[in-house]
Amino acid sequence: MLPRRVALASLLALAASPLVLSASGCKRGPKTTKLAVIPKGTTHEFWKAVHAGALKAGAEEHVEIVWNGPLKEDDLKEQIDLVQSFAAQGVAGIVLAPLSDQALLSPVKSAKQGGIPTVIFDSDLQGSEHVSFVATDNFAAGKLAGEAMAKLLESAGGGGDVIVLRYQEGSASTSNREAGFLDAMKAHPSIKIASESQHGGATVESAHKTAENLLSANKNVRGVFCPNESTTFGMLLALQQAGLAGKVRFIGFDASEKLVQAIRDGAIDALVLQDPFKIGYLAVKTMARHLRGEKVDARVDTGATLATKAGLDAPAIKALLSPDLSALK
Predict the structure, then answer these.
(1) What is the reported pTM?
(2) Do 136 and 145 contact (CB within 8 A), yes or no?
(3) Among candidate residues 113, 88, 94, 115, the one with its CA nearest the CA of residue 39
(4) Could you give phi then psi for residue 214, rounded to 5 degrees?
(5) Residues 129-158 pLDDT 10s
(6) Parallel, antiparallel, or unpaired: how do β-strands 249-253 and 33-38 relate?
(7) Architecture label for domain 138-273
(8) Where are the domains of the chain?
(9) Does 138-273 match 14-136+276-303+323-328 at the fold level?
(10) What does CATH list as the number for 14-136+276-303+323-328?
(11) Per residue in 76-132, pLDDT tens?
(12) Cβ–Cβ under 8 Å, residues 304 and 144
């Protein structure tokens, strides 16, 4: 039996130790591992699924997930500040979707020098300061979209003018999708890329405005490709307002309830679907394994799938379109 004074001191020390909540909401001890997960933004449906996947992995790994990112996907300064702030707080690791493949390199390097590793997800980062990169093979996904576009145009009598509404400069993920799409187009000389230099920006509003200008300047357009959720929705609005929805072949990227309905209505021909839940899940899992001293892959491909009207109700597609978001409640 412990002496009374020793036992009393132990009880007081235990009472003074703060309990924290893990990702599952269960109380854990004072040494719970804390991981900062920093997305590009927090408003699009894509990031909500990533968040849910990260929380599920956190619960399984018994780590606390701290989710924080910029409100808008063009707030580079906010994201840099978040990385630096979490590093200063001494989190065990940072899981980051960088807004810029260059600008986040220095903060990630500084975190590493301070003993805090980083796993990159969704969009690549230059250099080799990070532990692993967990994402869709974006070039291959863009190529998948390009091959689908070629089939659509060929089935409708041949080639024609196609426009690409890019996302924003510095985003490695969407740049690779755009590059993959354009690479696929090279195999089809009857298809002319009428525009590939315009960027829609980080919001639906800015993408909508750019899309309107593109459609106005390209009267003979037969096909359109957009590389993310916001550009896809901005272009959809512009096509609808111009009376071109369903007349111009349209392939977008990522999904939301309104974009899926647009496929059912015939306004969008196909969407390239990532698995955002899996991206968030595997990114956190990869960091947890690294922290345990296990060897992790430098590159983890989470896959991409083309969704069309004919396949929307297939179980595999439905699982991607309706990920389990219960962890967010």
Answers:
(1) 0.83
(2) no
(3) 94
(4) -65, -45
(5) 999 999 999 999 999 999 999 999 999 888
(6) unpaired
(7) 3-Layer(aba) Sandwich (3.40)
(8) 14-136+276-303+323-328, 138-273
(9) yes
(10) 3.40.50.2300
(11) 999 999 999 999 999 999 999 999 999 999 999 999 999 999 999 999 999 999 999
(12) yes
